[in-house]
Amino acid sequence: MIRSGRPITVTYSRGEHPESTHDIHGVIVRGGTVIDAWGDIDARYFPRSAFKPFQALAVIQSGAADAHGLQPRHLALSMASHSGEPKHTEAVMAWLEAIGLDEAALHCGSHRPFAEAAGDDLIRTGQPFTARHHNCSGKHTGMLTLMRHRDLPADYETYEHPVQVAIRDIASRFMGCDLDQAPWGYDGCAVPNYAVTLTALATGYANLTTPPDGYGDAASRLLAAWAAHPDLVAGSNRFDTALMLATGSRVLSKQGAEGVQGALIPETGTAIVLKSADGSQRGTEQAMRTLIERLEDAPTIDAAVLSEHWPAASGNITNARGDVIGRVVVDIPN
After folding, report:
1. Number of Cβ within a 10 Å radius of residue 174
2. How far is CA 247 from the centre of its chain?
3. 281-294 and 239-246 helices cross at what angle (nearest 10)?
4. How far are the Cα atoms of 52, 80, 88, 294 from residue 257, in angstroms, in the given order?
5. CA pair distance 145, 160, nearest whole angstrom
């Protein structure tokens, strides 16, 4: 039965009294069919980094991955929102060197690494934050690999560039919608992002397990890389990495900014996509964890592993002394 109308709510309490509530729109797709839905799944939302699997898929499908000898770790980085830890930045720099480019070729801009320790180390040693530290630098290096493979101009991030055209084409095929007609805007890393329904995005994820004709090899390679390298897809103390580690990569997870959270269970072809109405990431993380725990035939989440790698796993709210002073409550309407 399809549930609709009321959103999932994630409430943070202080004592016994609610303090903050996040409304979460969501959909579950399996076998091309919506099997559950909450809130407004027909509105269009920007998937942000939850779109990255399709951007990475274009690199494989084009032949660029084979031509440049990309390994699963490169494919994982090409769909990563990495934390800027040394294992991430060193891999990006080695990849750039392998395709005959340097950091200046990255058009993503820069920001402080998501990993606090990595950022602190850079400040302590007087080093600047550069493009390699941007969480999307792996994705951009993937696009540069496609650009080099086809001998294309260097402005790979522009809407009209053949790299972006190839991405729109492959994503449209998997999502079952025409991204050439979709509202769009530039993402935080300066490449195009497209407003789509949650159903379309979830359909695209589910179709990675049953891809259109001619895309089976690329899709299977992407899924294998995603599963093999949870530490590269996000990083230490990040929900995506924690969820994959806690399920032995039987659940593949991909977060997007402004409260977008996607997950794929390859063995059943089940995709879950959530969007927080207020852009809260903490709300969608808690909702996703709860949905997977309640979903029939979903892989079991190892609570100890999840807690080890995701600080919010307990559902407790604590103060500066470590006292438990509240709880997180997820309400999934029937």
Report:
1. 22
2. 17
3. 10
4. 12, 13, 19, 25
5. 18
CA distances from 284 to 6, 100, 181, 235, 288 (A): 15, 40, 28, 18, 6
A 10 A CB-CB count for 118 gives 21
Q: Taking the domains of the chain in order of start, what are their residue ranges?
A: 40-273
Amino acid at the residue 65: A
pLDDT digits (tens, 9 = 90+) for 96-105: 999 999 999 9
List the structure tokens of 324: 């438990």
Give the chain's end-to-end CA distance (angstroms, integer). Answer: 10
Phi-psi region of 103 (alpha: psi -120 to 50; beta: other; left: phi over 0): alpha
pLDDT of 2 higher than 60 = no
**Read out DSSP for 275-302?**
EETT--HHHHHHHHHHHHHHSTTPPPP-
CA atoms of 307 and 305, how far apart (whole Å): 5
User: Measured on CA atoms in the order 286, 289, 292, 293, is the torsion positive or negative?
Assistant: negative
How confident is the model over 21-68, as pLDDT tens digits? 999 999 999 999 999 999 999 999 999 999 999 999 999 999 999 999
Relative to beta strand 192-194, strand 252-256 is unpaired
Task: Measure Cα distances from 29 to 20, 206, 270, 297, 305 in Å.
Answer: 29, 7, 6, 14, 27
Summarize pLDDT for 190-229 with one digit per residue, the tens. 999 999 999 999 999 999 999 999 999 999 999 999 999 9
Q: Above 80 in pLDDT, residue 4?
A: no
DSSP-assigned letter for residue 100: T
* Beta-carbon count within 10 A of 209 CB: 19
